[in-house]
Amino acid sequence: MSTGTATKKSDTGTTFPTRNDSAPENRGKVISLLNQHLADTFDLMSQTKFAHWNVKGPHFYQLHLLFDSLAEKVEEHVDEIAERVTALGGVATGTARQAAASSRVPEFPAGVHKGLDVVTALADRYAAVGKTVRAAIDEADELGDKDTSDLFTQVSRDLDQSLYFLESHLQG
After folding, report:
1. To pair with 14 at 20 to 30 A between CA atoms, which of 62, 89, 142, 166?
2. pTM for the predicted model, two decimal places
3. Which CATH class is domain 24-104+111-170?
4. Nearest to 67, CA basis, from 36, 57, 111, 38
């Protein structure tokens, strides 16, 4: 199997030539940062789909629909993050196994299926990922990649809105 023009460092360190003028000395760090968040958002999306499939209780239908729409929004960001990695000449490490091996998102708790318990579990995970994404905004900016910083800003906004939707079920 040919590796083409790639410079093989490791599976996650493969880079390809690019005309992208982002700082070459920081590009690898930005790619690593993006791949970490690719794993986290992919995991968050899959846990949201798990909640969508398995929620039970009197508010099943409304939560089923909510969780599906939240998963779709996160899935959009999974794709955007992966494409940013490749735009910088990196390899998006985004298989389910790669995400599972790298994700910092806590596993969805076993045996949690009752409506508001599922909402609580998801709210905890959206808050945790939102926190790490906000830190990534600054990290990408410090690395001189304002485009990646902007991408993370949009991810953060959407995660905050999703958290608002989830927390609204838990308040009042």
Report:
1. 142
2. 0.90
3. mainly alpha
4. 57
